[in-house]
Structures
1.
Amino acid sequence: MTTLVTGATGNTGRHVVAELVRGGERVRALTRNPAAAEATFPAEVDLVAGTHTAPETLDAALGGVDRLHITVTAGLAAVGPELVRRAVDAGVRRITVLWGGYVGPVEQAVADSGAAWTRLEAQEFMSNTLTWADSIRAEGVVREPYDHPSALVHEADIGAVAATALLDDGHAGNAYNLTGPESLTTSERVALLSRALGRDIDFVRITHEQAVDRLMSTGVSRADAEYVVGWYAEPPAEATTVADTVERVTGRPARTFAQWVAEHADRF
């Protein structure tokens, strides 16, 4: 069996690859720059050039592939259904899809594909904390508009659930809500970071509009910025309530935020 992982060098894709390799699966990793990715993966991973947002170029990459992992990213909505169709036509019979926050065209195409599918409904990634890294290093400050609770999930746990669903039977047709083992407010996360790094970090509240403007300054549209900041203003219950999905699916406890911080302390 061979699995193609799209977005293989991304926050979650690299963990999917690692877990599949650990499970003895043949892995084909899709990346825009295979040469740059060589140091990231074991030698047995087959690196192929391409992007899932150009499915018309992926016939060779899909050849001989039985399983597929899709990460829904910006720009995929319009072409994702074609990617799914080409994958099924090429012989893919099992698909995991890491959703983009809601059931959109790609997620629906996967559900309608005829392949055995599993949707990974991760709420907030622990890696989102890295957006604080610059201001923490430069000023010892985190600026956010809301002190919201969030049951953030470790990216490695997303990879572990994806690999399990791809390799093992019994997961077809399931939409898995993925969270970490605790729900933490922004101020609680800042306090954990402060203790782990051994220095004071201040949490400074900014306005909703300042948060929107900050996102827009990175090239995000106003509509998308309002959606993101609005999510933090009123996070859904699924994002604030701890689910046991990671442990139930993988047999291992979900990783804590403190573990994530220890792994990434050098970034702050």
2.
Amino acid sequence: MKKILSIIFAMAALSFTACDDYIDLTPKGAVTVDSAYTYYELVLMPNRTYWPTCFALLTDDAYCKESKIIGFENTTLDGINYTFNEQADRTEIGQNNLYENAYKYILRYNIVIDNIMSSPGDEHIKQLGMAEALLLRAWEHFVVVNTYAKAYDPSTADTDGGIAIMKKYDLEATPFKSTVADTYDFILSEIDAALPYLQETPDLVGHPSLAYGYGLKALVCLFHRDWQQAKEAAEQCLKLNSELVDYTTISKVTSNTKYRYTAGNPGNPEVLDPTTSSVGFTGTLMYNYGQISKELTDLFDQTKDKRYTLFFQKNSGTGAYAYYFDAGVGASTWLSGATLNRFYYSTVGLRTAEIYLILAECQARLGDLSGAMSTLSTLRKNRIVGYDPSTATANSAKEVMDQIITERRKELLFGFHRFWDLKRLNTEPEYAKTITRVFPVLTTTVAQQTYTLRPDSRLYIIPFPKSARERNPNLTLNTDE
């Protein structure tokens, strides 16, 4: 008997609740997924979000209001992460829904992958829908492996514990955990299978483009240390979309409408994947994770760098933000009123700005130092008022890399970027960083201490959520907790 999926059923299935196989009755009012085109439409899931609770404060770029940490050093992930507390037990603490969201999205793409080729309809649509679902399934696995496993290290990846690879739609599956190496092999194979069928300009707004496909390959290859392949993919991406927003021409974000949306016209032309562009960073979450540290604040030219002047202000203890943030610590606050619904500030999804940074790093890794500096200059000229490339010099690969790493910190804020960058760079002694944090700064009722996060700290590997481990006994921890 022919199996018909309804969109209502598909969405219910993504809740991870146990249920029977595909149903054959179409609920009243449901839209059935019984053709290639409706499966293709199912690929698009706007506003996918990844809540940052498990990692947001585990970097040197973050600052958090002291009252949200004091007293919670052993009981919440924010408290544990902010004080670099390796003694606390993270395995029993709820992590919001980053892990579950990623696998919900994977299940959605598996529905498409398992059914679209056998559904009635145009062969072109079938191939396109399959390709897009493969590409986005690869991204979700990339999110999970870089958050819940060790960073890729060629010397240990074959034995390092990875994640559960989900290749089929099966709500009852309890897959064994793959290695980090196997997970990357799977992700790269998905991307390579998708690339030949992606559209340069998708027929439907919001669907992943060929530029996004090459951009994702560049990102994955960068983390996989395939410098040459990452460079080639980045160059292919930029051939298709090299546009940068010239921040230096924007005088007041609050009155801007030109770059207000993810896609369409007007829209932010840098956004390569408009459906994967936030980290749950709206509304009240801004008040928990909307500050950058004094260290990061001081990296900006606070008069000429428009990435700072347009989107941040020093915590002053006055105005609308005074209640939520500490004043006098040298940190800065993200101006939500200047960006939400006014300027699309992408925090997760790939942008052309990140592709330039990937290209620059690959050029530096491959010994093309002048090329790397030229690529950096292309980005900086669109961000810094009066930028003069001749003022930026470097005499070694290490000096160029240090500039690239700093530029990544200033450009790629609030998403996974700094957390993932610290993890991957910490596998290289030349770029590993020990982070220290003096806390608290203002509160006098608690003794001030210096907290240290070592490059090899187990905190960088987020434990799989308890709920996921209970559902799948094969999902053993990647840490020694």
3.
Amino acid sequence: MKIKNLIPFIIVSLYSCNKSELSISPSLEKKLGESAYNSTNENSTDYKVKTFIDSNIQKTANDALKDALITNNADYGCVVIMETKSGKVKAMANLNKDLDGNYKYNATTAVCQANEPGGLIRTYDLMALLEDKKADTSSVFDTHGGEISFFGQKIRDSHAMNGKVSLATAFSISSNSVFAQAINNSYASNPNLFCSRYKKLGLDKPLNLPFTNEATPNFPDPKSKQWSAITLPWLSIGYGFTVTPIQILTFYNAIANNGIMVKPLFLSEIKDKKGNLKTYATEVLNSKIASAKTVSSLGYLLTKKANGAGSTILTSNNITIAGNATAVPLEYADPSTKDKKYLASFAGYFPADKPKYSVVCFIYNPKSQVPIFGVMVCGNAIKTIAEKVK
């Protein structure tokens, strides 16, 4: 039996843990140990396993997520908190509303469910444009009133816009129309340049985490039958492909970590009865996702966005948060659908000036407000976590 098939049972145990490390049953320790040491023993006490989960941070994440789910009358959600430099996962909360309306443990949504990321992808768009020198933050675009058409398919902003704006302003106000223009104008003649950069980050394939059924993301290839003339502009606003919450976290964490992308790290160590110790260390996936100048620009704009006039919910007197939020309509392909469902999300890090932790929050089908905005749904949970986890 492999470690990959066992971690979901570890996460189930988190909520009864009252130590700094996670308590794991003797039988589970035996299975994990056998995998780690490639051996079979009859004694269930032969191995001692530790993860990097911190019970205090886990409780904070769990409580903040639960409050957000209740407040927004949502179906389910997840929060993951990761140590920026090391990739050590300090908390992973996954909660689902049961038939009685109570929120309880829900497997591993953060790892095992891939979704269209919507506006969270604009941070990648901006990185690609800056790195490929297709535009800079001062480049000016016409908003076209907040609506633009590609081959008869309209891309709209969540609110009406007028006049021309800089790319930096478009990022701050979450303009789909501007980013669709910027990406299509820059890469339509060579979409592989845009796509290959994304794939080099490894976001098109699983992270090979120690979980059963880790979701396989999907990202189209310009040479495949999936590709059409409208694929690129829709990719630019986060549609037509899927990615898991923890993969989004891994990307945003790399920005917080000065461009160094590290793999999320769950297991700390496994010790056998002879005292042999198998440890798990930080793994660098990409030592430089972009130039220092680009990473710095992204950090500045993520901090500005999280603390802008339209996002005061994330403003705290105790800590500065950086990040991006969005809400994705799940039935956008059918405009006639009534009672639309949304996926609200946030990805970012804190403190903004000297990042210590990165955090991602996904909340499915919130029903507390119309229209749905990601920062309104996830914001209080993120601020609570940032203020308590130091």
